[in-house]
Amino acid sequence: MSSVRVAINGFGTIGKRVARAIQAQPDMSVSGVTKTGPSHGCGLAQRLNLPLYCTSDDLEDIAAFEKGGYNVEGGLSDLLANSDIVIDCAPGKMGQSNHQKYVDAGIKHIFQGGEKHSLTGLSYTSSANHKENIDAKGTRVVSCNTTGLARTLIPLRDATGELSVECTMIRRAADPGDSRKGPINAIAPVLKVPSHHGPDLMTVAGGIGITSLAVAVPTTIMHVHSIVVELPGGHGMTTDSVLDLWAKTPRVISMSGSIDKIPSTAEVMEMARDIGRPWGDLHEIFVWTDGASLDGNTLRYFQAIHQESDVIPENVDAVRALMGMEHDWRASVEITDSSIAASLV
Amino acid sequence: MSSVRVAINGFGTIGKRVARAIQAQPDMSVSGVTKTGPSHGCGLAQRLNLPLYCTSDDLEDIAAFEKGGYNVEGGLSDLLANSDIVIDCAPGKMGQSNHQKYVDAGIKHIFQGGEKHSLTGLSYTSSANHKENIDAKGTRVVSCNTTGLARTLIPLRDATGELSVECTMIRRAADPGDSRKGPINAIAPVLKVPSHHGPDLMTVAGGIGITSLAVAVPTTIMHVHSIVVELPGGHGMTTDSVLDLWAKTPRVISMSGSIDKIPSTAEVMEMARDIGRPWGDLHEIFVWTDGASLDGNTLRYFQAIHQESDVIPENVDAVRALMGMEHDWRASVEITDSSIAASLV
Amino acid sequence: MSSVRVAINGFGTIGKRVARAIQAQPDMSVSGVTKTGPSHGCGLAQRLNLPLYCTSDDLEDIAAFEKGGYNVEGGLSDLLANSDIVIDCAPGKMGQSNHQKYVDAGIKHIFQGGEKHSLTGLSYTSSANHKENIDAKGTRVVSCNTTGLARTLIPLRDATGELSVECTMIRRAADPGDSRKGPINAIAPVLKVPSHHGPDLMTVAGGIGITSLAVAVPTTIMHVHSIVVELPGGHGMTTDSVLDLWAKTPRVISMSGSIDKIPSTAEVMEMARDIGRPWGDLHEIFVWTDGASLDGNTLRYFQAIHQESDVIPENVDAVRALMGMEHDWRASVEITDSSIAASLV
Amino acid sequence: MSSVRVAINGFGTIGKRVARAIQAQPDMSVSGVTKTGPSHGCGLAQRLNLPLYCTSDDLEDIAAFEKGGYNVEGGLSDLLANSDIVIDCAPGKMGQSNHQKYVDAGIKHIFQGGEKHSLTGLSYTSSANHKENIDAKGTRVVSCNTTGLARTLIPLRDATGELSVECTMIRRAADPGDSRKGPINAIAPVLKVPSHHGPDLMTVAGGIGITSLAVAVPTTIMHVHSIVVELPGGHGMTTDSVLDLWAKTPRVISMSGSIDKIPSTAEVMEMARDIGRPWGDLHEIFVWTDGASLDGNTLRYFQAIHQESDVIPENVDAVRALMGMEHDWRASVEITDSSIAASLV
To answer: In whole numbers, what is the pLDDT of chain B averaged over residues?
Structure first.
């Protein structure tokens, strides 16, 4: 099979990571990435040998790149014309207008979780609904938080039946590279109750009734979920069998806070840096084995989410679904993850 | 009635606050406070005109105060001999040995929530079990977190019936005056699941089944609770009637995050500083009105707890219970709180 | 002498503190405070028995207060007409237009350090230039940082002669009640080199050549200054005699980090809360005795600045200067500080 | 020339980074790394194909690795016997006893900046004294802070003459993977004045008189230095020529806070993650071009130090010095840095 050409529209926190993950795959290549103008990120694109395009088709905007010292291949239309599919990694609020552009260009498209489900009417998570997305025109990879919930809850649902979930999300208030946002010394509840995070899971997975509450706290590195699950009666599980289930689940890492000396997200992120992925990313959801406890039908556990990167491999899988390249989600995940691993030093 | 003489054993974060609250009451006085040796806190005791005693009876220890430039009235035994009741505000791990001293001295005693319920076999919260504590020999005022849960859950239970509660506690990792503890940039789950915090409520209140999970976050100023309550069927409540209920509940303040511009614990604490209590304390539990939502039988809400001070007025009420001074908890709360308010400038 | 009537235009972080400090004085009273509209702060004004006025004279604006449930006495013009002097505590950028209003009303006026020296052509610090300000029409109390520098440097200059100073200011990035500003986990240099902070001292004091650099760090509670002073040759001082000098200086507190267990600004602020001033304020500049060292002609030391309150007593003294009530700065400081102390419980 | 065999004793924050940097070099290889027992880090060693040894020679200690599921090649003595030189990356306080072991084994050795200069009587910084270290028996690579000062000050000294420097170090209080240390919301001055950091530079470089003060702040990612340099009269430099000088200096990166949108260390570290080095490291010292200003003879500037990694390439160069492999420091730096760059994806 010849390589699928993937355009990446937007080259920031998510775009740059998706680009490197696509580059590592045997069955796809990056046809180009876009920036709005000459800036720091253009240098990164060049270092990674990624063809650079302008987010707009305006000739003056395009010319600005050359003046800034960067080679540019053209505008968004040029990029779309040379591509089989586009992954939209633009900042929020651009979804509606970008969607129209993709539809007009007749190109398949993948949005991120910042956009609403209604934009495409279809959402995506590898383990939840890969099949539903096969050959679709467009989809939306759900947010980092929803992806995290899917990773640990879907195998539980598959093993036991319908679940009822309450989740409190303790969210990092700003990304590591952002020095403007606070708070410095406070906890800020999200005063929309329940929050939108949990219910978003239902856009990709049935059989899980879920409600969530959220607070923002002064940290930059990971979200933590505190989760309470009601399993159906006669579930036949124990704490250990739940942990075994997750141990066999792709993109879930479980370790002990006490034995492995990982008491907080600080140590989780340090462990991730040791793995050696670009930007010190952790694509996996982290579960503390000594933070999980099944009591009767009620399972309680903590998990940590690397908000900058857990959706990255999902975007790769979504390309395979929409392009009809691989119908089995486990097979796609296996290619995606082993190719990324092989690309590391 | 002549004034009840209250000894305060330990003059740190809790002890100094309890002392000022007792000083403000018309029916009690502080017979003395203890320190282990000459230090900064002794100056505070003198400024507040609080008789100073040594935590031990050792003559050398006592003499050390004079050398440090502080007048000292004697040792703990001397203080207990001049007092009707003692409030133990010693740091953790001293409970067992201090308890024996109080029993030997034949004096009534009140411990703090750092000690276990089993130490005295009795615990105390004004709104939960004041009556049970009348004329008791000794009791334990429950922790700041348990006190916070009691304040909002007990009126709900009284209004509707048996409750089932899941709570996630987002805890400040260190007190404002403590520069040693971290984390600086992380979230640390409490890897004992469920945590001990919620169930402690059952030592003072029946009819509330509660489980809790906890994480520590990099802030010094308040705990936040994210609470999910299952009300009994036929409860007849609405979100508004729940908020009305709390508006009438002593030691609960509810305000709007959006209208009153209090989006986080930073602004809650600033509002508290405006009240003018010593140390900028907030004795009340803070509930965000726009963070509460009743959906069917499920109530979800956030509350913030000033970990340094919500138990202070409870200690005053506990004195009245153990000394048999006031049998009605609402009457005691009214005297305690209005006396503290009158003592402010 | 009859009481001088002081208007306070603006009732936020500085205004509320100045109001309480004025209320505590025997020779002045607060004629009123202003708010832009009905809000949380109006309740505080009422609790403190401070007559409330509207920042504007617009009748609709004024009427809004009544609708919000607050009694209002009128607009700014009404307040100025009933006052002998006005202290401007409005947020930044209002200086120019407010200044014109005060001039038009023919009322004496005091601005805060957020305004430029050129607005009034005169600035004020109690220990630096009280005399220069006697009977002046208007002045500006310098900023918290400049006030801090004046407190420790002016006595040094008076004792030894002309000083040359380099200062690095490690600034709290946001106030305690502000949850919007970051950074959460970063250090942000002020990329204007040198910064404006140090040289501002020269608006009130001669004989001190000073340059400063500044960084913002993720803390809310105090600024810290790292100061290097070149004393003139033949200064005759030792580290101990410098510490003695500061011990005798009003509004400077010096304590030992190791002996008094005050290793950081967290413990400094806790010590301040023990003093019992409203909002836990520390009007004094805090110097670590074990952080000062004189080596040849070079003195190095650290000091901590409570950014919310060190200028408060300076505003009181400035009233006495402009109104010609007290010509000796030390006498004014003595009245101001002892009156504030006497007002505490 | 055959490859020099480098042993790395200690495989933590510094050891793991040094190992990867050595692996990237054409003229050296890692003969082995040591751990005290089976733990997380052993897995990293295996993933990087680094022969694993036990820190001790005790047979029981060695056997513990196999029980933990890790292959181990032997004890420290075995490793030293198979190596040409050892880089000591043990935690502090081990220097004295390890030094004796290396002397006894007759092996060349390099210590880190946590040890004192007196341990080996010789210290090392590439740009300062590579020549002095040629063929030496043992040396010490200076600390991250001293290395940072050397990078920007030595070229200045070489261009102008003797320098006099005052530096305030605003230090990160804990490393990113450490959740135990605080403070959460405070600034802690280092109450040894002056601090040891600056003067340590004199162990590697003459002609620079330097004094330093230090504070710790609640951040995990970088130190910032606020530096004031007195250049000799007749220096002939301008702000621009100083910036040009640094632009040509190896291992110094200078960018604009405003134009490049790098206002704080958060954005500096994000830029570093884009470079793609393992752990997101920044080996270079970062200087803000708009934070530097030369006024007469006085130069003021800010620089940021990645405390986990700026010394890593220096260790590689130090191997070349002690082994007599390359006598010219610039040539060694060129090989080191280009080899590391080539090893990145």
So the answer is: 96
Is the pLDDT at B53 greater than 70? The verdict is yes
Residue B166 confidence (pLDDT) above 60: yes
Say if domain A4-142+311-343 classifies as CATH 3.40.50.720.
yes
- B47 chain-C contacts, CB cut-off 8 A: 276
CB-based burial, C84-121: b 16+ in 10 Å, e otherwise? bbbbbbbeeebbeebbebbeebebbbbbbbbbbbebbe
In this complex, is the C-beta atom of C311 within 8 Å of any C-beta atom belonging to chain B?
no
Is the Cβ pair B273, C270 closer than 8 Å? Answer: no
Residue A276 Cα, gap to closest chain D Cα (Å): 6
Asked if A270's CB is within 8 angstroms of D177's CB, the reply is: yes
What are the structure tokens assigned to C111, written together?
């601005």
Contact A184 C182 (CB under 8 A): yes
Sign of CA dihedral D3, D4, D5, D7: negative
Of A176, A184, A344, Cβ closest to residue D270: A176
User: Residue C1 above 60 pLDDT?
Assistant: no
**Closest Cα in chain B to C48:** B345
D296 phi and psi angles, rounded to 5 deg: 65, -125
DSSP for B269-308 reads HHHHHHHT-GGG---SEEEEGGG-EEETTEEEEEEEE-TT
- How many A-B residue pairs are in contact by the CB < 8 A criterion? 147
- This complex has an ipTM of 0.95
pLDDT 10s digits, D291-305:
999 999 999 999 999
Q: Domain locations in chain C?
A: 4-142+311-343, 144-305
Q: Inform me whether the C-beta atom of residue B174 falls under 8 Å from chain D C-beta atoms.
A: yes
Q: What are the DSSP E strand ranges found in C103-193?
A: 108-111, 123-124, 138-141, 163-172, 188-189
Tens digit of pLDDT for each residue in A119-177? 999 999 999 999 999 999 999 999 999 999 999 999 999 999 999 999 999 999 999 99
Three-class secondary structure of residue A313 per DSSP: helix
Whole-angstrom Cα distance, residue B165 to residue B230?
A: 6
Report the b/e string of A125-162 with b at 16+ CB within 10 A. Answer: bbbbbbeebeebebbbbbbbbbbbbbbbbbbbbeebee
Per-residue model confidence as pLDDT tens digits over B202-223: 999 999 999 999 999 999 999 9
User: Does the structure show a pLDDT above 70 at B284?
Assistant: yes
Q: Which among D176, D182, D219 has CB closest to B181?
A: D182
Q: What is the DSSP letter of D333?
A: H
Helix (H, G, I), strand (E, B) or coil at A217: strand
Report residue A154 as tokens.
């879907």
Which pLDDT score, from 0 to 100, does residue D40 have? 82
Q: Give yes or no: B144 in active site.
A: yes
Q: For residue D345, what pLDDT is reported?
A: 61
Q: What's the confidence (pLDDT) of residue B345?
A: 61
Length of chain B: 345
Residue B36 forms contact with C (CB below 8 Å): no
Q: Is the pLDDT of residue D137 over 90?
A: yes
* pLDDT value for C345: 60
In DSSP notation, A3-23 reads PEEEEEE--SHHHHHHHHHHH
Residues of A annotated as part of the active site: 144
Contact C290 D194 (CB under 8 A): no
Q: Do the Cβ atoms of A218 and B217 come within 8 Å? A: yes
Tokens encoding D80: 């030293």
Would you give the end-to-end CA distance of chain C in angstroms?
27
Residue C220 is nearest to which of A178, A184, A188, comparing CB atoms? A184
Q: What is the pTM of this model?
A: 0.96
Residue segments in chain A with a per-residue pLDDT below the cut of 70: 1, 345
Using CB atoms, list chains with 3+ pairs below 8 Å to chain A.
Answer: B, C, D
- Phi/psi zone of residue D148: left (φ > 0), alpha (ψ -120 to 50 degrees), beta? alpha
pLDDT for the residue A345: 60
Touching check for A186 and chain C: CB below 8 Å? yes
Q: Which CATH class is domain B144-305?
A: alpha beta
